[in-house]
Structures are given as structure tokens and as C-alpha cells.
Design brief:
proline metabolism, oxidoreductase, FAD binding, proline dehydrogenase activity, alpha/beta, 9-stranded mixed beta sheet, flavoprotein, TIM Barrel
Length: 437
């Protein structure tokens, strides 16, 4: 998944006047598959449904393939066509960008444009602005075959080039970290049991981001906040999974270190992984990082969680850190997914090995099909031994790549699918304007 750089969510204006944390909560499409011997079954996840979601070892009766989008409601598809038409037209997207950035205050305060924006862009990409709206979105998604919502506190800090650590007071550092921690914990409270919450390290504020860039030790308050977030995810048996997002390359070494530290502490054998790292496979170093982190988890005996994406900072990361072309990125991505799926975790923690959580985050139909084909092969190989103790999830952004999501949901090989929405920041007007620019 690619994202335009330079998007600041900190100073954007809300579509609704609510002052709660909810305007910063986002969601993502997900389809999850699990082995019957996994620590958690799909029936336990996102929903109280009693449906079995385990892989079947019997050969399914051949059926006529279902067109991916045929099960989605017509009004939703028409709205998708409208939004895609605007966003893919240079003239319309440039015009919309200018209007959004120039008249943000008017568009968010006048009831007529507010109504239009809420029922087009906002509802298409966002889960909601209140708990009731989020629940309504969840109910609608479940009726389509999705079974949950990935929430995210979407604050992401961009540090001005001239800002230094000496310019930031201790008071501001503590304020930023506390707000980030409290908002993330509140997001976890809104999440359903066994669902996902995405976390951005940079939301902790400029001082923390500067320490990430130089890979210097963080404030004890920052590390305590991470512990509090992980403890909240595991509290009361809720077992929320934390997807720690990848960010710009200059921060990634430090972020990898934090996430591996948290994996060792919280990815314990009695549950599927709580903590997931994110690997941007357009980076040349990512395959070796993924391999070494996976092997470290096995040798040290902690559960391993990985979300695999192509990359989100194409316009800001150094070009020399990428593969030379799309083919290199495709091979890197598909190879990373294959490594995780075929990794011998010695049948999971229940059998003395480690549990592995895998999020296949892709809008690329070829990559998703390859992953599904590999799963189909593995479930019949040695009675699915290599899939025991693994939890596999397919993820797409809300309002995008619905044909990819639905192809997994409708597949005869899906073995049970959980689907959730991750929408953009509900402060969608300013976000959309910046994203289109």
C-alpha cells in the first residue's frame, strides 16, 4: 500500500465538532484465516459467531466462482464509482484539492457541504465519529462478510527541519507522550476482543521522534507508555493485537528495536501474538530484517507478529533504499509472505514452538492470490503442520480494493474470514485535500 507523504493529521479540522478521541480513530479491511490448532479460533475473534473458521482438510465440492463485488450493495458500489471517478481525474482531483484546502472551514461548518462530505468521502473511508456510528459500521460490514474493525489512533507527527531536542521542554514532552498513550489506550477500549489496533510511534510527539531519528535512548515515560499500551491490550482477556506501523526509513531502526523489545515481553506462549512489527518490502533491507527477526523469535522463544506491506513513504524515503523497480518490490513482498507462511514454527507454542501472527496487507490481487494458493497447498501438506500455531490475516484499506477483499471472502479456500475497516482519519476534509495534492 502506498501513501502520499507530507500528510499532517495534527492540525486538520474535524468533520464533526466532537472533541473526543473518536475523530482520530480509523479502520482497515481485514480477512483472517486460522488453523484449527491455533491458540485462538476465528470463532473467538471479532464476533461471537459459532461458525467454524478452521481450514478443512477435505476437498471442497467445486462451485461456480462468485464475482468478487456481486455481494456488495449497489448504493455502495455507486458511491465507489463516484469517488474513484473524482480521484482519478486530474481535472476533478485538482479542483477538489483546491476547494478542500482553501475552504476547509466553510466546508466543515456549513450544513449542506457537511452533509455531502459525510455521506460520500467520510462514510466511505471512516468508521464513525461516535461509538454508535462505529457499531453501525461494524454491523454493516459483518453483513457483507467482514467481521470486525481495525481501529487506529491516527496522530502522526512531522518534525520541522530546524527543531532540536533542546527546543522542547520537559513539560511538552510529558504532555505529548501522555496524550498519545491515553488516546491509544482509549482506542483499545473501543476495540472488540481479539481485534486489531494500529499504533504509530511518532504520535508520541516531536521529542520522541527526534530520539527515533538518532536512535538515542527514549524518555522513561515513553517506555512506560508502551508498557501501559500493551497491558491495556491484554487486560481482562481482551487480547487486542497491536500493529505497530512502519514509518519513514530514518526512524525505522529505532522502531524495530522498540517492537522487538515489546514482543519479547508480551508475545507469551499462552496466546497468539499481541505485538506486531510492520515490514515495508520496497526497502532492500526488509527481507533480511524479516528473516533475522523471525529467527530471533524462534531461538529466544517469543511469539512473532508481522504485518507485511509494500511501502508507504515512497515520496519521502531515500530512493537508494528501494528496489530498482516494481518487480523487485513484488518479489520481495511475495517472498516475505512465503517465508512467513512456510516458516517451521514447530507447530506453535502448544507443541513447544512459537506462535506466529501474519498480516498480509496488500491491494495487489496477484500477491493475495499467491498467498491464498500457498495456504491451499500448505493445509494439505503433512496435514497442515506448517500452519499450526499461525494466525493469517488479509488486510486492505477501507473504501479501497474491495474486489481483493471480497475475492478472499468468497474463496472456497478461505477457511473462514474476518473482515474489518480501517478508515482514514475522520478529519477527512483536510486529510483528503492533502492526500490528493
Amino acid at each position: 500500500m502506498l501513501r502520499r507523504s507530507g500528510v499532517s493529521l495534527v492540525h486538520s479540522l474535524p468533520l464533526t465538532p466532537s472533541k473526543s478521541i473518536l475523530p482520530l480513530i480509523c479502520t482497515r479491511n481485514i480477512s483472517t484465516q486460522r488453523r484449527p490448532n491455533s491458540t485462538l479460533s476465528t470463532a473467538d475473534s471479532f464476533t461471537n459467531s459459532s461458525e467454524s473458521s478452521s481450514f478443512s482438510h477435505s476437498n471442497p465440492t467445486p462451485q461456480t466462482p462468485v464475482p468478487p463485488l456481486s455481494t456488495l450493495p449497489t448504493p455502495y458500489l455507486l458511491r465507489t464509482i463516484l469517488i474513484c471517478t473524482v480521484s482519478t481525474s486530474p481535472f476533478l482531483s485538482n479542483l477538489l484539492t483546491k476547494l478542500l484546502l482553501t475552504y476547509t472551514t466553510f466546508l466543515t461548518s456549513n450544513p449542506i457541504p457537511r452533509f455531502f462530505l459525510k455521506h460520500t468521502f467520510y462514510n466511505h473511508f471512516c468508521a464513525g465519529n461516535t461509538p454508535n456510528e462505529i457499531q453501525s459500521t461494524l454491523t454493516r460490514l459483518k453483513s457483507w462478510g467482514f467481521r470486525g474493525i481495525i481501529l487506529a489512533y491516527a496522530k502522526e507527527v512531522e518534525v520541522p527541519a530546524k527543531l532540536s531536542r533542546e527546543n522542547i521542554s520537559q513539560e511538552h514532552l510529558e504532555f505529548d507522550i501522555k496524550n498519545w498513550k491515553d488516546a491509544t489506550v482509549k482506542t483499545i477500549e473501543y476495540a472488540e476482543p481479539n481485534s486489531f489496533v494500529s499504533v504509530k510511534y511518532s504520535g508520541a510527539g516531536p521529542a520522541s521522534v527526534l530520539n527515533m531519528e538518532t536512535n538515542e535512548p527514549q524518555s522513561p515515560l515513553f517506555m512506560t507508555a508502551l508498557d501501559d499500551i500493551c497491558k491495556a491490550a491484554q487486560a481482562n482477556g481482551k487480547n487486542v493485537k497491536l500493529l505497530f506501523d512502519a514509518e519513514q526509513t530514518r526512524y525505522q531502526d529505532a522502531m524495530d528495536g522498540y517492537t522487538l523489545h515489546l514482543m519479547k515481553r508480551y508475545n507469551t506462549p499462552e496466546r497468539m501474538p499481541t505485538v506486531y512489527n510492520t515490514y515495508q518490502m520496497y526497502r532492500k533491507i526488509s527481507p533480511s530484517n524479516l528473516k533475522s527477526h523471525l529467527e530471533a523469535a524462534k531461538s529466544q522463544g517469543f511469539g512473532f507478529g508481522a504485518k507485511v506491506v509494500r511501502g508507504a513513504y515512497l515520496h519521502s524515503d531515500p530512493r537508494s533504499t528501494f528496489w530498482e523497480g516494481k518487480e523487485g518490490t513484488d518479489d520481495s513482498y511475495n517472498g516475505g509472505i512465503n517465508r512467513l507462511l512456510t516458516f517451521d514454527n514447530s507447530r506453535g507454542a502448544k507443541n513447544g514452538g512459537i506462535n506466529v501472527g501474519i498480516v498480509v496487507a496488500s491491494h495487489n490481487q496477484t500477491s493475495v492470490t499467491k498467498a491464498m494458493d500457498t495456504l491451499s497447498h500448505l493445509k494439505n501438506e503433512e496435514a497442515g503442520r506448517l500452519l499450526e500455531g499461525k494466525e493469517i490475516t488479509f488486510a486492505q484499506l477501507a473504501g479501497m480494493a474491495d474486489e481483493v477483499s471480497m475475492s478472499v471472502i468468497n474463496s472456497q479456500e478461505n477457511g473462514g474470514v474476518n473482515v474489518v475497516k480501517r478508515a482514514y482519519n475522520p478529519r477527512v476534509v483536510d486529510y483528503a485535500g492533502r492526500g490528493l495534492s
